[in-house]
């Protein structure tokens, strides 16, 4: 797919950004916050002075004439770029309240899923799909900690108390709200296949139990989605849950990189 066929529109606060030579959007299972990075031309320092932390960011991207994907977040930091005429902007997605809202509370004889549901509601985010453990925690307390950390401690307590395998349970903000459990993000199963859209399949990084796929820009993909991989060279024809997804644009190419394999929850 030619670069000219790709459209990317970026709004930061009240600014409509005309050009971003380098950009990336990344999501990873077991990491509750999605991230984005933008490298912007700023030879006179005008953007640096105009962009502020917590400015709302909207990125619309995809192929012209097709359904575009939208990514939303807020500015976390902006710093001078690698050259004197560039600005680096780092953005956190809309799951930010999972980190900024802190909980100080105690529970007795409550289920892990009830505690998690209550904590998510305190963030103002919509509650999505919550897994059921069928257990009751005799006692549990949170000492003024972020919601994501509270939920991590709920998992640890549940695993310790009931020997329940929670290695594949994850917390993430999906299209239908904040999810917690061992399941997938809803969406069509995307096929990545030889010789259609499979560019590189590198299954060698098993130090972390992961394999890398490089494909053409697939805008709506996020972690926890399912992909059907058909690699004729390696005789692979199987479906995998994505552990990490990175959309990336440079002056030379635009790609989607995905990782599948072992869960590290």
Could you list some keywords that capture this structure?
265 residues, mainly beta, Phage tail proteins - horseshoe like beta roll fold, Phage tail protein beta-alpha-beta fold, Elongation Factor Tu (Ef-tu), domain 3, 4 helices
Main sheet overview: 13 strands, mixed
Determine the structural class based on helices, strands and strand pairing: mainly beta
Identify low-pLDDT runs.
none
Order of helices and strands: EEEEHEEEHEHEEHEEEEEEEE
CATH class of the largest domain: Mainly Beta
Form type: globular
- The CATH topology label of the largest domain is Phage tail proteins - horseshoe like beta roll fold
Helix run count: 4
* Cα gyration radius (Å): 20 Å
- Mean model confidence by pLDDT: 94
CATH superfamily of the largest domain: Baseplate protein-like domain - beta roll fold
Number of strands: 18
Give a structural overview:
This protein has helices spanning 46-50, 97-100, 112-122, 147-162, and strands at 6-12, 15-17, 22-28, 35-41, 56-63, 69-80, 86-93, 102-110, 127-130, 137-146, 170-174, 177-181, 190-193, 198-202, 210-216, 226-231, 236-249, 254-261. With 265 residues, it is mainly beta. It folds into three domains: 3-95, Baseplate protein-like domain - beta roll fold (Phage tail proteins - horseshoe like beta roll fold, Roll), CATH 2.30.300.10; 98-181, Phage tail protein beta-alpha-beta fold; 190-261, Beta Barrel (Elongation Factor Tu (Ef-tu), domain 3). Helix 3 packs antiparallel against helix 4. The model has no long low-confidence stretch (mean pLDDT 94).
């Amino acid at each position: 797919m030619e670069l000219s066929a790709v459209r990317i529109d970026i709004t930061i606060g009240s600014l409509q950004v005309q050009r971003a030579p380098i950009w990336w959007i990344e999501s990873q299972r077991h990491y509750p916050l999605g991230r984005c990075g933008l490298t912007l031309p700023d030879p006179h320092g005008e953007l640096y002075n105009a962009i502020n932390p917590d400015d709302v960011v909207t990125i619309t991207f995809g192929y012209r004439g097709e359904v575009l994907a939208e990514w939303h977040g807020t500015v976390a930091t902006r710093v001078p770029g690698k050259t004197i005429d560039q600005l680096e902007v780092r953005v956190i997605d809309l799951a930010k309240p999972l980190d900024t809202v802190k909980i100080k509370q105690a529970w007795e004889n409550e289920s892990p899923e009830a505690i998690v549901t209550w904590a998510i509601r305190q963030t103002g985010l919509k509650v999505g799909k919550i897994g059921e453990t069928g257990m009751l925690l005799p006692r549990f307390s949170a000492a003024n900690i972020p919601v994501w950390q509270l939920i991590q401690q709920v998992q640890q307590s549940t695993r310790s108390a009931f020997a329940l395998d929670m290695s594949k349970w994850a917390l993430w903000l999906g299209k239908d709200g904040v999810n917690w459990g061992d399941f997938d993000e809803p969406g069509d199963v995307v096929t990545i296949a030889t010789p259609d859209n499979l560019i590189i399949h590198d299954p060698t990084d098993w130090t972390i139990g992961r394999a890398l796929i490089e494909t053409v820009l697939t805008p709506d993909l996020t972690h926890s989605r399912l992909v059907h991989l058909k690699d004729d060279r390696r005789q692979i024809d199987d479906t995998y849950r994505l552990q990490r997804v990175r959309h990336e644009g440079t002056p030379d190419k635009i790609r989607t990189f995905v990782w599948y394999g072992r869960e590290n929850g």
